[in-house]
Amino acid sequence: MGIWKRALPPEVFAKNHAATLPALLGIRLVEWGEDYARATMPVDDRHVQPAGILHGGASVVLAETIGSVCGVMALEEGWTVVGLEVNANHLAAVPKGDSVEAVCRPLQLGRSVQVWQIEMRRGDGRLSCVSRLTTVVRQVRGG
């Protein structure tokens, strides 16, 4: 189980996000490793800018989604995370019809702050975006 304190099977991720932005964009959690998680997102009409390439904001949604999920899964029950800052460096265009794969790993797993690095690669394996998500750890309050 590595760094993970909880389990989240991909089918549970899909069910939990069924009516949310990640589902609308087709984001799928596909793998948990010892210290990483992997997610995918297609690049179709929902994701592109007028030039026919992946919109940078869609990359940020993918990064924040997988980073936030990882943040929660790295904590004991009763704790959660809230995003504090997200950034993204767009390195290579991803054309409509392709897909992106995101791999998320921790840079810092502190008691109050976590930092996650997300690398996104297009279908040919080229690095298309590098993102960093900083989260604040919070105790879940009532109900």
From TrEMBL:
Residues 52-129 form the Thioesterase domain. Keywords: Hydrolase. GO terms for cellular component: cytosol. NCBIfam families: unchar_dom_1 (TIGR00369). InterPro entries: HotDog_dom_sf (IPR029069), PAAI_dom (IPR003736), Thioestr_dom (IPR006683). Pfam families: 4HBT. This is Hotdog fold thioesterase. GO terms for molecular function: 1,4-dihydroxy-2-naphthoyl-CoA thioesterase activity. Belongs to the thioesterase PaaI family. Signal peptide: none annotated.
